[in-house]
Design goal:
548 residues, alpha/beta, 6-stranded parallel β-sheet, 40% helix, globular
Length: 548
C-alpha cells in the first residue's frame, strides 16, 4: 500500500553517489506520485539500500543484488518485501523504469503535449511485481513536434533527435561546404558534363579525403560524439571523372566510390562509428569492398508505396529496397534504418498509412535491425501528427503492443465523444486508398489522388464524418479545435487539387478561390498550423504562392 487516504509511510531512496539520471528519475517519481496521490514523498540519499523498508529504491542495476538482466536501456520493476525497486539498463534505463511504472500500473499517459493524463487516486496499492523488459531497438526515435519535447521523449523512452551525432545525414555539405572549398579546390567536387559541380563530392579525390580527415580531427576534438556521419549530399548527381567511372563499372555504381572513401575515414578514427547513407544512388552495397566494422550503414526506405507494409507482397515499389537491405546485411550488422511516415512536401494533407506502422516496425525487428528512425512530420503540427507520434513512439518501444488499443485510447482521450467518428474517418481513408492503383508516395502532390481516394465523392464522405464528429463535441473547445485541424487537412487537399487542375479561372472563380485560400490561412493560424513542409514553407508563403 503505497498510499492510503492521502497518507504514505514510503520514502524514495537513491544512492549517495547517484548520477544525474538516477537523481532525475527519483525527482520524476516524486513529481508523478504527488500528482496522482497528492502525497510528496521525501527523497533520501543512502550509502547502501540494505535494511531499507517501506522504500521506493531507485538506481542502476549494479546497485542491487540478483536483479534480472536487461539489454540496452531496458527496465526492471520489482516488489521485494515492503520495498518497490525501480531499476534499468544503460543511459536513461532507470528513468524509463519510473515512467513504465506509472504508465503500466497507475495508467498515466502522455498522449500529446496538450493531453497528459495522470489519474487521481486517494489510495494506491500495487500487486506483487517482477517485471523486466528489454527493448529490441538500441536507438529509436520518431521525428515529431512531440518528440522535440524532452519530457515527451523521455516518457515514451525514445532517443532525442540524433543524440550523440553532430550531423545525422548528408554531412559533407557541412564538413566540406562548397561555399568554402569549391572556388579554390574544385577537384574535391563531382565532374558533371565536363565541369566540376558543387552538387556532389568526388569520392575518388585524395585531396577531398585528406581535407576531410583534418576537419574531422578538429571536430572530434571539440565535440565528443560517438557517431560521425560521412555521407553524400542530398542530390541525385554523382561524379563522372575517369577514376569514379572506372570504379562504377566494376560493381554497383556509386557505392564503389563511396564505401572505399568512408572506410578510409573509419580506419583513421577506429574508436568512432562512421555513418554513411544507403540512399538513392548509394542504395545498393558495394560488390568490391565490405564496410569496416565501425562503419554504420544508414539505410533509407524512400520511394515505396505507403499504403502497404514494406515487406508486403502488394508493395511492388519496396521489392528493390527489401533486397538491397538484405544484401547490406550480408556484409555488416551495423545497420541503422531511416523510414518515412509522412508526405515530405505536403505534411498537412490526408496520408493514410497508420496501419503500416506496426507491420513495418515488426519487420525491422524480425530482420535484426537495432537502430530505427521514423521520419514523421517533424517539429510542426500536421495531419494526425499527435496520433502518429504517439503510436509510432509506443511501438518503437514495444513492437508487439496492441496497436488497435493504442489508437482507441488515444482517440478517446484526444477527441472525447467524437472518437469513434475519428476512427471511422481514418479507416475510410485507408480503405479508399487501397481501392485505387495509385501508390501512396512520400513526395506526391495531393492532386495525384484527385481521381482516387481524394475524389469529390470520397471527400464529401470525409467531410460528413468529420462534421458528425464536430456535432458531438459542440461545447468542448479543445476537441473542436482538434477535429477542425483534421478538417483543415481536407481543405488543404482541395486547394492543392484545384490549384493544380484548374489553371485558368474567370474573375468570379478567381475571387472565390482566393476567398477560400484566405479562409484556410486564417483557420490555420488559429489552429497553430505554421508550416506545411518539415518546419519550412509557412502558411503565408503557401497562400502567396497559390493566390490567383
Amino acid at each position: 500500500m503505497l498510499s492510503d487516504n492521502g497518507q504514505s509511510k514510503y520514502k524514495i531512496v537513491v544512492a549517495s553517489n547517484a548520477d544525474k539520471n538516477e537523481i532525475f528519475a527519483a525527482s520524476e517519481f516524486q513529481r508523478y506520485f504527488e500528482n496522482v496521490a497528492g502525497v510528496k514523498l521525501n527523497v533520501q540519499y543512502k550509502e547502501t539500500f540494505d535494511k531499507e523498508t517501506f522504500a521506493v529504491l531507485i538506481g542502476k542495476k549494479d546497485r542491487f543484488k540478483n536483479l534480472q538482466f536487461v539489454q540496452n536501456d531496458g527496465v526492471i520493476i520489482k516488489t521485494e518485501s515492503s520495498n518497490l525497486i525501480i531499476s534499468g539498463g544503460e543511459n536513461r534505463g532507470v528513468l524509463y523504469g519510473v515512467y513504465s511504472f506509472f504508465e503500466n500500473y497507475l495508467n498515466c499517459k502522455f498522449f500529446a503535449l496538450d493531453e497528459i493524463v495522470t489519474p487521481k487516486k486517494t489510495s494506491i496499492s500495487i500487486p506483487s511485481i517482477n517485471y523486466t523488459y528489454s527493448p529490441p531497438f538500441s536507438f529509436r526515435s520518431y521525428y515529431s513536434l512531440e518528440n522535440s519535447n524532452k519530457a515527451y521523449a523521455d516518457f515514451h523512452k525514445e532517443n532525442y533527435f540524433f543524440e550523440g551525432r553532430l550531423y545525422p545525414a548528408h554531412s559533407l555539405a557541412w564538413l566540406l561546404p562548397a561555399e568554402k572549398y569549391f572556388a579554390t579546390h574544385p577537384e574535391y567536387f563531382a565532374l558533371i558534363d565536363g565541369k566540376r559541380n558543387p552538387s556532389q563530392i568526388c569520392f575518388s579525390s585524395d585531396g577531398a579525403l585528406a581535407e576531410l580527415l583534418l576537419v574531422l580531427k578538429r571536430e572530434i576534438a571539440a565535440t565528443p560524439n560517438e557517431v560521425w556521419s560521412v555521407s553524400h549530399l542530398d542530390s541525385p548527381n554523382y561524379c563522372h571523372c575517369n577514376l569514379c567511372e572506372s570504379k562504377y563499372k566494376k560493381g554497383n555504381g556509386f557505392s564503389e566510390t563511396l564505401i572505399p572513401f568512408v572506410n578510409k575515414v573509419a580506419r583513421a578514427f577506429p574508436d568512432k562509428i562512421i555513418s554513411t547513407l544507403a540512399y538513392n544512388q548509394s542504395l545498393l552495397p558495394s560488390k568490391l569492398e565490405k564496410p569496416e566494422k565501425n562503419v554504420e550503414i544508414m539505410f533509407c526506405f524512400t520511394n515505396i508505396d505507403r499504403r502497404y507494409a514494406i515487406n508486403s507482397d502488394k508493395n511492388k515499389e519496396a521489392y528493390k529496397f527489401v533486397k538491397a537491405l538484405k544484401d547490406w546485411q550480408g556484409l555488416t550488422n551495423n545497420i541503422f534504418v531511416w523510414d518515412y511516415n509522412v508526405n515530405y512536401f505536403h505534411s498537412l494533407f490526408p496520408f493514410p498509412n497508420l496501419k503500416t506502422f506496426q507491420e513495418n516496425i515488426l519487420y525491422f525487428q524480425n530482420i535484426g535491425v537495432k537502430k530505427v528512425f521514423l521520419e514523421g512530420i517533424g517539429p510542426q503540427q500536421g495531419e494526425f501528427s499527435e496520433l502518429k507520434s504517439y503510436i509510432g513512439s509506443e511501438l518503437l518501444w514495444n513492437p508487439n503492443a496492441d496497436s488497435n488499443l493504442l489508437m482507441d485510447e488515444f482517440l478517446l482521450n484526444y477527441y472525447g465523444d467524437a472518437w469513434k467518428d475519428m476512427k471511422d474517418y481514418i479507416q475510410n481513408l485507408e480503405l479508399n486508398a487501397e481501392k485505387y492503383n495509385t501508390p501512396l508516395d512520400v513526395y506526391a502532390n495531393p492532386a495525384v489522388y484527385k481521381d482516387g481516394y481524394l475524389n469529390e465523392r470520397n471527400i464529401t464522405t470525409y467531410k460528413s464524418i468529420l462534421q458528425k464528429a464536430l456535432d458531438k463535441v459542440k461545447n468542448k473547445q479543445k476537441y473542436i479545435n482538434r477535429i477542425k485541424k483534421e478538417m483543415l487537412s481536407i481543405d488543404y487537399a482541395e486547394i492543392e487539387i484545384s490549384s493544380n487542375t484548374n489553371k485558368a479561372l474567370d474573375t468570379t472563380h478567381k475571387a472565390k478561390f482566393n476567398n477560400r485560400l484566405n479562409a484556410f490561412k486564417e483557420d490555420a493560424k488559429k489552429l497553430n498550423i505554421t508550416y506545411l513542409r518539415n518546419a519550412e514553407f509557412t502558411i503565408e508563403e503557401f497562400a502567396k504562392q497559390k493566390s490567383r
